[in-house]
Amino acid sequence: MRNYLEFEKSIAEIEAKIEELSALTAQSGAETMGVEISRLKQKAEKQLQDVYAKLDPWQKTQVARHPDRPRFRDYVAGLVSDFVELSGDRQFGEDAAILGGLGKFMGRSAVLIGHEKGRTTQERLKHNFGMALPEGYRKAVRLMDMAEQFKLPVITLVDTAGAYPGIGAEERGQAEAIARSTERCLTLGVPLISVIVGEGGSGGAVALAAGNKVLMLEHAIYSVISPEGAASILWKDSGRAKDAAVAMKITAQDLRDLSVIDDIVTEPTGGAHRDPDAAIAAVGKAVLAQLDSLGNMDASALQAQRADRFYAIGRLGVSSNPAH
Q: pTM for the complete prediction?
């Protein structure tokens, strides 16, 4: 059964009618309602296109958090062959919120690292809803070290509300682990492509997203804090999350204009959750193109490009995006 968002109510009603008529047609064995079903399908598709063409930042936030969006394991299954997952930070333990390993990304050897939220309740609890512990970031550093040693590109898929804020995580050096992971991204001597595939929340996202190229799915979000958190701080009212989402410029379109990201990966009509296979294929194609663009750069050039890219963010009159 499809999970509909609040603003998709009109689409849900049409598609429910389509299912009802299709069931009646199947029972009767006659195509008596074929014309009406076809008309309703066209109407639903048109409404879907219209709704998704003008989503506001808060609606995009809901889409970015949709439980049926592709997760890290889905991208690995769809784009990577011979994947070997590597676990543990070699200091404390394993963290299931950040996964990583080696494999052939569309035929090219690479290291992949990403947040995993899980899909079922049991999986979400196992993966801590994608909110990583220090061990996750230290594991990411270990994998990046390995990638540099064997001269393999790194691809990171970001989807987290933020790093886990629990007492144990803080006791084990959460802030330091995030900083070290961010630093390692910036100092890597191999290409690093980062894709915000859902939520890109706070330092927990930046720790995997300080890449040579940063891409975002069309309806993903990327921000220093969640809209609810920002609203609680600014107005002492988490109910004003929609206002915060608008003010913070968290959408892919806003962030491309601000040169925080480099490019937007178009999602299927109705969002990545409606057609995960198409969304996964689009991400694969976009990442491959970026890898090609960085293929002839040596370690020092990659490090310099990465540094220039991030130093330019926020500077008036300076853009790291040649398209702007």
A: 0.90
